[in-house]
């Protein structure tokens, strides 16, 4: 089967793109995404990395909001344990109080959910992020296969302004 993005076969304006979301599976995918957000919320509220990471697969792929990448539960869980450590000598608290909100959900194929979940810091000016999560169902249980976190902040001024073509000669 030829690759639709191949240089040998450029896209033309007449080709239709496929919509990947399965409407029949969408409601169930929304439930899975909401349950993941609730699990993350529970772990975050308790400052408990094991609860936070409960859905993470053994071979999870993880991208931090600062560009670091990890592969595997053991190393990621150790990082989350350090991050959520609530020792009295830790100032400020290592993980900010946050609210987890499902932003969007896609059900591209049976047993796969792609969702965006926002972690909004509750304190003004606190660190917030948007994460893209890929979940896979195995034997009736959902597992987080991959995540990519992106900080939420103000874009640079020059990127928010769209140039306007001049109408003057």
Structural summary, described in words:
The chain has 169 residues and is α+β, with helices and mostly antiparallel strands. The protein has 4 helices and 6 strands, in the order H-H-E-E-H-E-E-E-E-H.
Key attributes of the depicted protein:
169 residues; alpha+beta; 6-stranded mixed beta sheet; 4 helices; 6 strands; globular; disordered C terminus
Topology readout:
Elements: H1 23-46, H2 49-52, E1 56-63, E2 69-71, H3 73-83, E3 98-109, E4 112-121, E5 128-138, E6 141-152, H4 157-160
Parallel strand pairs: 1-6
Antiparallel strand pairs: 1-2, 3-4, 4-5, 5-6
Q: Can you count the helices?
A: 4
* General form: globular
Largest sheet: 6 strands, mixed
Helix-residue proportion:
25-40%
- The succession of helices and strands, N to C, reads HHEEHEEEEH
Which band does the percent of strand residues land in? 25-35%
What is the end-to-end distance? Answer: 50 Å
Class by alpha and beta content: alpha+beta
Low-pLDDT stretches are: 164-169
**Count of DSSP strands:** 6
The largest sheet has its strands arranged as 2-1-6-5-4-3
Taking Cα atoms only, what radius of gyration do you get, to the nearest Å? 20 Å
Summarize the structure in short.
The protein is of the alpha+beta class and 169 residues long.
